[in-house]
Predict the structure of DUF3299 domain-containing protein.
Amino acid sequence: MKTKGIVGIILMSFIAAFVTHVSIKHSRQIASMLLPASTVYEAKPTWYTSQTKFEELTWEMLLPEHEYELISRYQQGEAKTVSDFTSQILNSIESASDKEYQQAMISVNTVDTFAEQRVSISGFIVPIDFYPNKDLQNVFLVPYFGACLHFPPPPPNQMIFIQLAQGFGDFDIGQAYTVKGKLKVELFEDFIGTSAYSLEPSSIKTYSGEPDTFRTHAR
C-alpha cells in the first residue's frame, strides 16, 4: 500500500509539473482563447460606415500560388525530436540552393484580387516609428512573432505597412492583433523590411481565438 501511495504521489507530481510547464509555455495562446478581444485602436476613414463588411484573410491568400507552393515546400513545424532537427537541417541546406525559393523569399509579387478591398487579417505588429508621445505611428503587420526583430523579415508580400493616427499607445510586441481596413497593393521600404501591401486601418483588436497558420507561416 505504501508503494502504491508513493507511486501515486510521484504520478500526481509529474502531472502537476507537466500542466504547469504547458501553461507557462502556452500562456499567451491560452489567454487569447479565454479572454475576449479588446479594441485598442479605432479610426473613421472616409470609406468606413457601420455597415462595412470585411473579408477575413489568411497570409497564404496574399501569396501568388506558385510562391505559396515554394514556401510551403520548405516550411516545417517545431522540431521536437532528433529526427525533426535532422530533417530541418537537410531542409535548410536544400532551400539554400533552390534559386526559385530564394527569389520567393524576396518577392514583391502580389495578389491583386484584394486590392482596394475591406479586409480583416491577424498578425503581429512591428513598430517602425512613434509619435512624440510614444504612440505608434507607422508599423508593419507580419505573420509571426519576432519577424524583423529576432528573425529575418518575411517576404515583402507577407508584410503589410500600416500608418496610424495618434491613439495607439498601449502596445504589446508579443500580442497578436486583428486589423481591419482597406488593403492596397503598394510598396513601402524601410531599413527594417519591405512590404508589398499597405492597409488603411479602421480598427485594431487584440487577437482572440485559437492559434492558426499566421503564427508560423513563412518563418
The helical segments are 2-25, 27-34, 65-74, 82-96, 99-104. Strands lie at 39-42, 55-56, 118-130, 136-142, 160-163, 176-189, 194-206. Residues 29 and 211 are 7 Å apart (CA to CA).
